[in-house]
Design brief:
The protein is an all-beta fold. The protein has 1 helix and 57 strands. The protein is globular, with a radius of gyration of 30 Å. The strands form 8 sheets. Strands 35, 36, 37, 38, 39, 40, 41, 42, 43, 44, 45 and 46 form a 12-stranded antiparallel β-sheet that branches. Strands 47, 48, 49, 50, 51, 52, 53, 54, 55, 56 and 57 form an 11-stranded antiparallel β-sheet that branches.
Length: 799
C-alpha cells in the first residue's frame, strides 16, 4: 500500500494524523545490512500486546509476503524502523515456529540496499525451484513489491538476506497507478497467479499468470469500486468443492470461480469478513494470507493501526484460519483463531448452566490482564434486553470496554449479528491493547484496539444482564501468558533455548548478542554436551576478553576459550588458566574460535588455522551447557554453533583480516565491508592453481586474492555485480570479462599463476575468461577480498 493512496483514504475518515511523516527517515547501506535498529525491550510496556505481534520499535503497517518456509512462519510488514509514523518504507521481519511466539529479526528489505519503493507486496516459497533462483539447500522465499509495476526480491537463506532479481528492474510495467502485488499457487492449472491493485479506469485488480515466478503474462482484470488496495486471492473448500475468495484492504470480499485466467462471481456485492474500523490506520486493514502452510490452511493476519506506545506504532491481528460456510446470501468467510493459542493457556475456570442477572456475576473475584473468554447463551426464555461482558472493570462499576449482545437490535458489539437458532456464542481475545471478538463459529468477527488499564484494580471481569436475565449454557475463562522472548533475534545458533544470562547485560544488536559487564558475564543456552565441536565468532568492543563457554553449569561455571586484549587466546575455568597462546588481539576485529572436546582433551583453533593453538587436558568438568562469556566491558558474539560446519579451506595458520567484518556461519565464511577488505592466510605461493566458491549477497564484488602482502596488496580475481569478472591489483584493472553476475548466486573462480602469466576460469568452464601477463607481484599470500558488499566464500583450494 502506498503513501499517496493511504493519505487520500485516511483524509476521508479524518485520520490523517496517523500518516504524518515521522523522522528522521533514512536509508541503509550494504555493509550495515541487515540492520537491527531496535532498542532492548521486555515487551512489557503499557498497551503492548502480549500475544499480538508488534514491531520491537518503530512504525508498522501492512503485512507483506507471509510465508511458511524452511520450518518457520515468516511475517514481513511495512515498516519505518526509525520513527513512530509512516515514512521511508522498509520490510520488517519476524519469525515464529507456531504463529504465536514471534521473534523480531533484522530488517528484510531496506531502501539504499534494495531498489524501488518497497511498498506492500506478497510472497511465496519456491519449493520446486521453478524460478531457478535456488543456490543452496533452502527453498527460496520470493517476494514482490514496487509501485506502477512489480519488482522481485528473493532470499536463499530463509529470509536473513534478500537480493533484487534483475537488479530490481520491473518485471511487470503498469503505466497506471498500481501497487500491492500478491501471488498464489493455482494447483489445478499448475501455475502462479498474481493480483495487483491498479486504478486503470477505476478500482480493481489486474491478474497475471506465470510458470516460473519471474515471467508474467497479463490474463484479465476484475474491476470493482470496493476493491481498493492490498488484494488477496485464495481458494477455500466448500461442500466438497473449492471456491475462490478475492479480498480488498478493507476486508470486503466476494466469492466466485477462477478458470486460470479470469475471476468471476455471481454475487458481486461484497461482504465484510471483519467489522472493525476497516480503513488505513483503523483496527483491521490490509489483511494477507500465508503461503505454503504445512497443513494447507489459509491463515490470515491484518494490520491494526490504532495501537501505539512510546517506542512502537501499530500491531497485527492474531492469526486466524479461514473457512467458507453456506448462508442464505451465499458463501461466507469464517475466521477462527489458530490452535497455537493453546500454548499460552495458563489457569482455566469453567461455568455451566448458570442464570445471569443484573446482580450476580459468575466472574466475580477474577483479576486478569490478558485472557480468553468463550461463552454460549441460551435465548430461550431470556428476558434481558442486553447481556455481555464488562472487561477490565473496576469496583466503581466502570470498565475499559463492554461487549454487549442486544436482543432487539440483533447486534454484538454494535455490529449486526444474527444468532444461530436460540444460541449466542462469543469468543473474546483480550490483550493489553487489543480486543478481538468472534461469534457464530467465526462468521462474525471484530478487531479493535483498546488501551486496557493493566493496574490490578482495573483487571476485573463482569458478566452481566440488563433488563432481565439470560441463561449461560457454558463459559470458559483462560488466562493467556506472554508469547515473547522464546527465540534469538540476531544471534545465529543451532543451540536450543531458552537462553539465560546469569550475569551481565546481554542485548540484541545487528552483529549478534552484545554483552555489557563489569566482571564476568555469561549467556547460556539450554543445550548441554560432553564431547563436541563448538565454534563461534567473538569481537571485543571495549571488553578485556570474550569467548566460548562450554561444559558449564547454569551459573556459567565450566570452561571458556576466549580472546584477551592482553594478546592471548586463553582456555580457563574458574580458579585456573589452563593454557594460553600468544597472538595480537585487536579490539573491534572479529575472531573465529573453534573448540573440540574429547574426554579430558580440549583443543582450540583460531581463525580457521589448520592446527590447534591450544591442546590441553583437564578433568574438572565432564559436560554442561554451551554459551558465551564476556569480561570487563562490551563484547559481541555471533554464530554459536555445534558441529563441524563452517569455512572449508586449504591448510593454513590462523587467518587475519585487514578491514571489514568476517564471520563464519555453518554454511560459509561471510564478509561485510564498506570498501576493500582482505582476509589473508599465512600460506604463500608463486606458481599455483587457486580456486573457490564466491557469492555477492548484496553490493559490489568478492574475489580470490593471491601473491599478496600482509596488507592485501597483490592480485585479486573477483566477481563484480556490475557484470564482469575482473583481475586487478592496487592502481590497475588488468583485465575484465563481461558476464552477468547475479547477487546471491554462487560462482566458482579458478586462478592459475605461472610466472607473469595469470589465467582465470569461471564456473568450471573449459576455457579461460581472462588470460594476461603482469609482473608486478611474483609471490605472496593467498586470501579473499570483498568490496562494498556482503559476500560469502567457501571451498578454497590451492594446488
Amino acid at each position: 500500500m502506498g503513501r499517496r493512496a493511504r493519505a487520500v483514504l485516511v483524509v476521508l475518515v479524518t485520520a490523517l494524523a496517523l500518516l504524518a511523516p515521522g523522522g528522521p527517515a533514512r536509508a541503509g547501506t550494504v555493509p550495515d545490512y541487515p540492520e537491527f535498529p531496535y532498542p532492548a525491550t521486555t515487551y512489557a510496556e503499557p498497551f503492548r500486546g502480549q500475544f499480538h505481534f508488534s514491531s520491537r520499535s518503530g512504525w508498522m503497517n501492512d503485512p507483506n509476503g507471509l510465508v511458511f518456509a524452511n520450518g518457520l512462519y515468516h511475517f514481513f510488514y511495512q515498516h519505518n524502523p526509525h520513527g513512530l509514523e509512516w515514512d521511508t518504507m522498509h520490510w520488517g521481519h519476524a519469525t515464529s515456529p507456531d504463529l504465536v511466539h514471534w521473534t523480531q529479526k533484522p530488517v528484510a528489505l531496506e531502501p539504499g540496499v534494495h531498489p524501488g519503493t518497497l511498498f506492500s507486496g506478497g510472497g511465496v516459497v519456491d519449493r520446486t525451484n521453478a524460478s531457478g533462483l535456488k543456490t543452496g539447500p533452502l527453498d527460496p522465499i520470493v517476494v514482490y513489491s514496487n509501485t506502477d509495476g512489480v519488482s522481485i526480491f528473493y532470499s536463499n537463506d530463509n529470509g536473513r538476506t534478500f537480493q533484487a532479481y534483475d537488479q530490481g528492474r520491473k518485471q511487470i510495467d503498469i503505466p497506471k497507478d498500481s501497487r500491492d502485488p500478491n501471488v498464489v499457487w493455482d494447483a489445478a492449472r499448475r501455475q502462479w497467479v498474481m493480483v495487483v491493485w491498479s486504478n486503470a479506469g477505476g478500482n480493481g485488480v489486474d491478474i497475471y499468470t506465470s510458470p516460473n515466478l519471474l515471467r508474467w503474462t497479463f490474463a484479465s482484470r476484475y474491476a470493482a469500486d470496493w476493491l481498493f488496495e492490498c488484494p488477496d486471492l485464495y481458494a477455500l473448500p466448500l461442500n466438497g468443492g473449492q471456491q475462490w475468495v478475492l479480498t480488498s484492504a478493507t476486508s470486503e470480499y466476494v466469492v466466485g470461480t477462477f478458470d486460470g485466467r479470469t475471476f468471476r462471481t455471481d454475487r458481486p456485492q461484497p461482504k465484510k469478513m471483519n467489522l472493525g474500523t476497516t480503513y488505513a490506520g483503523g483496527s483491521f486493514y490490509a489483511a494477507e494470507s500465508f503461503d505454503n502452510t504445512p497443513d494447507g490452511r489459509v491463515v490470515q493476519m491484518a494490520w491494526q493501526g490504532g495501537n501505539r506506545g512510546g517506542s512502537w506504532t501499530g500491531n497485527a491481528t492474531f492469526p486466524v484460519s479461514l473457512g467458507l460456510v453456506d448462508s442464505p446470501d451465499g458463501p461466507r468467510v469464517t475466521r477462527t483463531p489458530v490452535a497455537g493459542l493453546d500454548s499460552l493457556r495458563a489457569d482455566t475456570r469453567t461455568w455451566r448452566d448458570t442464570t445471569v442477572t443484573g446482580t450476580n456475576n459468575p466472574f466475580a473475584g477474577i483479576l486478569a490482564d490478558t485472557y480468553e473468554i468463550t461463552a454460549r447463551f441460551d435465548l430461550r426464555g431470556a428476558t434481558a434486553q442486553q447481556f455481555g461482558f464488562a472487561l477490565h472493570s473496576r469496583s466503581d462499576g466502570t470498565a475499559d470496554r463492554t461487549v454487549v449482545y442486544d436482543r432487539a437490535a440483533h447486534t454484538l458489539y454494535g455490529q449486526p449479528f444474527q444468532a444461530a437458532g436460540d444460541e449466542v456464542s462469543v469468543r473474546l481475545l483480550v490483550d493489553r491493547g487489543q480486543l478481538e471478538i468472534f461469534g457464530g463459529d467465526g462468521v462474525f468477527s471484530v478487531a479493535d484496539n483498546v488501551n486496557f488499564d493493566s493496574a490490578a484494580v482495573s483487571q476485573g471481569i463482569r458478566l452481566f444482564a440488563a433488563g432481565g436475565q439470560v441463561r449461560l449454557k457454558e463459559a470458559r475463562f483462560t488466562r493467556l501468558s506472554t508469547s515473547w522472548g522464546t527465540a534469538q533475534p540476531t544471534v545465529e545458533s543451532n543451540l536450543a533455548g531458552p537462553w539465560s544470562a546469569p550475569a551481565g547485560a546481554w542485548t540484541d544488536v545487528a552483529g549478534g548478542k552484545q554483552a555489557q559487564t563489569a566482571g564476568d558475564a555469561f549467556y547460556l543456552s539450554a543445550t548441554t554436551g560432553a564431547d563436541a565441536v563448538y565454534q563461534g565468532d567473538v569481537r571485543l568492543d571495549t571488553a578485556q576478553a570474550a569467548g566460548l563457554t562450554f561444559r558449564a553449569t547454569p551459573e556459567g561455571v565450566g570452561y571458556t576459550a576466549n580472546i584477551d586484549a592482553a594478546g592471548v587466546v586463553k582456555l580457563w575455568r574458574p580458579g585456573r588458566d589452563i593454557a594460553t597462546f600468544a597472538t595480537p588481539i585487536v579490539k573491534g576485529r572479529t575472531y573465529h574460535l573453534k573448540v573440540q572436546t574429547t574426554g579430558s582433551r580440549i583443543q582450540v583453533w583460531l581463525n580457521h588455522g589448520t592446527s590447534p593453538v591450544i591442546d590441553a587436558t583437564d578433568t574438572a568438568h565432564a559436560s554442561g551447557r554451551f554459551g558465551a562469556n564476556a569480561f570487563r566491558g562490551t563484547a559481541t558474539v555471533q554464530n554459536l554453533n555445534t558441529g563441524p560446519g563452517g569455512f572449508d579451506s586449504f591448510p593454513s595458520g590462523p587467518w587475519t583480516s585487514t578491514a571489514g567484518t568476517w564471520t563464519t556461519t555453518p554454511e560459509s565464511l561471510r564478509a561485510n565491508a564498506s570498501g576493500d577488505a582482505f582476509y589473508l592466510s599465512d600460506r604463500t605461493g608463486a606458481d599455483f592453481v587457486y580456486e573457490g566458491d564466491l557469492a555477492v549477497l548484496n553490493g559490489v564484488a568478492a574475489g580470490l586474492t593471491f601473491r599478496a602482502g600482509a596488507d592485501g596488496a597483490g592480485y585479486t580475481a573477483n566477481i563484480d555485480t556490475s557484470g564482469v569478472v575482473k583481475l586487478w591489483r592496487p592502481g590497475a584493472d588488468i583485465a575484465t570479462y563481461v558476464t552477468p553476475i547475479v547477487p546471491g548466486r554462487t560462482y566458482h573462480l579458478k586462478v592459475r599463476a605461472t610466472g607473469s602469466r595469470i589465467q582465470v576460469w569461471l564456473d568450471q568452464g573449459s576455457s579461460t575468461v581472462i588470460d594476461v601477463t603482469d609482473s608486478t607481484f611474483a609471490a605472496g599470500r593467498f586470501g579473499l577480498n570483498t568490496y562494498s558488499a556482503t559476500a560469502t566464500a567457501q571451498h578454497l583450494r590451492v594446488t
